[in-house]
Write a structure and sequence with these properties.
By secondary structure, this protein is mostly helical. It is 76% helix and 0% strand. It is built from 14 helices and no strands. Helix 4 packs parallel to helix 7 and helix 13 runs antiparallel to helix 14. The protein starts with a helix and ends with a helix.
Amino acid sequence: MTETTSQDSIRARLNGDTVRNVLLHAFLYGLAVLMAVPYLYTLSRSFQPTELLRDPRPYWIPPLAGEPITLEHYQYLLNNTLVVEWTINTFIIAAGATLLIVVIDSMVAFSLTRLDWPGQGLVMGVILASFMVPYYMNIVPLYQIVSDLGLINSYWGVILPAVASPLGVFLLYQFFKDIPVEYEEAARLDGFTTFQVYTRIILPLAKPILSALALFMFVYNWNAFLWPLLVLSNETAYTLPIGLVNLYQGNIDTPGLHMAVAILGSLPLFIIYLIFQGQIVRAVQMQGATG
């Protein structure tokens, strides 16, 4: 009798957990589908001919009769605009800024945590204090400096200010500080120089956070809009976000092109997310942990 009661209790608990899990997953999947609706609608409309797009009835799925699917919007963008050049510009700027950020910030963090020189606390204090300064406060003096250096309308005018971000130094400083000093001491007993300790001990141990930082910075610089808009005035030098907004404002007036522009603007980062989604999620978590 007691055994039967116990089995009923376990069965009831399992049924309760099963129902709770089913409801939770149904809610989460429903929420995910709801968030994906605008993207699916944009994707569907970007392949529909102009006649369907101007129909008062919105077509989520094109009808089978007539010409349900067309590539005319994408062909127009690729043949009559500078989308390809803008994509290349964006990749050069985002990749260049990311590479310099990883190299320079790792060197700064290494010198602050592993070397002994006067003024380390002051330098770290300045880096932390820079988080308190609103970004828009720096725009006018930064633009004046870039202009004086003759970097307006050039890649370097966008890349160099992006390299000065303190976020990478702060993240790496926290990580480097927690690496046991015994590793460095053992390396020095084996005759390693300071540079060898940095390249052969610290950097390999910091590979996870370096990859996360690199991905986060690449996405951030890929999506950057305000600063490239101020520095880049030549249409051939535009980045992808600036060029696509410019198309929205004046050069196209059909909804299909608007939808195709949105898809082309999102596609590169979507592919990158599919490839590196684990590292990107970790980068977002690190960003949230540091505020």
